[in-house]
Write a structure and sequence with these properties.
Blueprint lengths: L1 E5 L2 E4 L7 H14 L16 E6 L2 E5 L2 E5 L14 H13 L9 E7 L5 E4 L11 E7 L2 E5 L9 E5 L4 E4 L8 E3 L14 E7 L3
Antiparallel strand pairs: 1-2, 2-11, 3-6, 4-5, 6-13, 7-12, 8-11, 8-13, 9-10, 9-12
The structure holds N-(carboxycarbonyl)-S-(naphthalen-2-ylmethyl)-L-cysteine and fe (iii) ion (FE).
Keywords: Dioxygenase, Iron, Metal-binding, Oxidoreductase
Cofactor: Fe(2+)
Pfam families: 2OG-FeII_Oxy_2
Length: 203
């Protein structure tokens, strides 16, 4: 099922269900190299969402700002390479949404436990906004907020569930978005947790 959310933005319900087992095994390998950690923002808050990355670079934040780094500042080592199953899913989903030339160079993995949230923001640390972002939701459901180019634009809410994939490109690439505080619950495969993968062309 392909649902158009906005110009350039497509929701593919259940698109990742077929490769769930491969994705979870890959996440295990990635977090063995670079464990999930809660990072500090330039404002001095510690994020409620825990993060790690794989690929040629990873998104990191500290008191000095946000950036992509080829090495994990926690380990001093490169991030785990992008697994083949990750790349295949991202390319397939992007193609399905009309972005057949997309090849991500990094994937940010977000881990939400009940109560964790991501405030309304834009993703603008990537060099080239011409690339779409592909996002994959796993585990507990979350309420996703999707706004407009201006922070004050009206916001629509969507439930994102285990296996849902969304592609955000073109005129939607710089739209504001966020995730409401995760509700208490337990997913049959992942337990008290939601994972979100965002594939990006950052370099
Ligand atoms: C719409 N992650 O990592 S994914 C993020 O569920 C992030 O963890 C959320 O926002 C999460 O930056 C939302 C959906 C998403 C990702 C990027 C977008 C929606 C987007 C970029 C532009 C517009
Ligand atoms: Fe974002």
């Amino acid at each position: 099922a392909r649902e158009k959310l906005a110009e350039g933005a497509v929701l593919l319900r259940g698109f990742a269900l077929d490769c769930e087992v491969d994705l979870l095994a890959a996440i295990q390998a990635i977090t063995t190299v670079s464990p999930f950690r809660r990072m500090a923002t330039p404002g001095g808050h510690v994020m409620s969402v825990a993060m790690t990355n794989c690929g040629q670079a990873g998104w990191v934040t500290d008191r000095t700002g946000y950036h992509y780094d080829a090495t994990d500042p926690e380990t001093g080592k490169p991030w785990h390479p992008m697994p083949e199953s990750f790349m295949a899913l991202a390319v397939f989903a992007a193609t399905e949404a009309g972005y057949c030339r997309f090849r991500p160079d990094t994937c940010l993995i977000n881990r939400y436990e009940p109560g964790a949230k991501l405030s309304l923001h834009q993703d603008r640390n990537e060099r080239e906004f011409a690339h779409p972002i592909v996002s994959v939701s796993l585990g507990l459901p979350a309420t996703f907020q999707f706004g407009g180019l201006r922070r004050a634009d009206p916001i629509r809410k969507y439930a994102l569930r285990h296996g849902d994939v969304a592609v955000w490109g073109g005129p939607s690439r710089l739209c504001h978005h966020g995730v409401l505080a995760l509700k208490e619950g337990a997913h049959p495969k992942l337990g008290r947790m939601r994972l979100n993968l965002t594939f990006r062309g950052a370099l």
